[in-house]
Amino acid sequence: MRTLDYSESELCIIQAELFEMSVEKASYSSLVFIRRFMLSNFVGSLDNKSYLFQSNNPDYVFEVLDQEYGESEYGSQKYDSEVMYWVGYMYRTISFLYNLSSKQVYRLFPAKEIVNCYQIYNSVDIMQAAKRMMDNIGYIKPEDYTVEGVKILRGLLEEDK
Question: How would you classify residue 50: left for phi > 0, otherwise alpha for psi between -120 and 50, otherwise beta?
Fold first, then answer.
């Protein structure tokens, strides 16, 4: 399994810290924050790594989300900041490891689902947790189709013998 490079690791930390700050800064529930963040126009700057070259302070992100979705006090359940940190880090890790946009990762793991994964995977190495989560949903990277196809064909040949 590939590892994250320095800029990817930094962006994982940045996104994790933004998720953690959302517990205090967002006027809406954690689930609403996760959905808004992962589906926002802003998140593309994390996907393409351009966020590293911008001089944004964290408050800017919350302002951008409020401008895009409107200010509201929608929902009230706030998750623990440790849970939110892990969720933010995990989303970004999966995005980089599997070369998926934030929106694609969110479709694979909606907010409630990834929060539930915290209980299972929070004590596992983040790279292993990402792999296990993707394996559990049966995700195969496009470049792995050939490898998987060969395994299936070998299995079928063995059955025929």
Answer: alpha
Q: What is the pLDDT of residue 55?
A: 72
Residue 49 burial (10 A CB sphere; 0-12, 13-18, 19+) = middle
**Is 15 within 8 Å of 92 (Cβ atoms)?**
yes
Give the DSSP H or E segment for 62: helix 58-69
Separation between Cα atoms, residue 134 and residue 106, nearest integer Å: 12
Per-residue pLDDT of 53-77, as tens digits, reads 887 788 888 898 889 888 777 777 9
CA distance 104 to 101: 5
List b or e across 73-95, with b for residues whose CB sees 16 or more CB atoms inside 10 angstroms: eeeeebbebebbbbbbbbbbbbb
DSSP 142: G
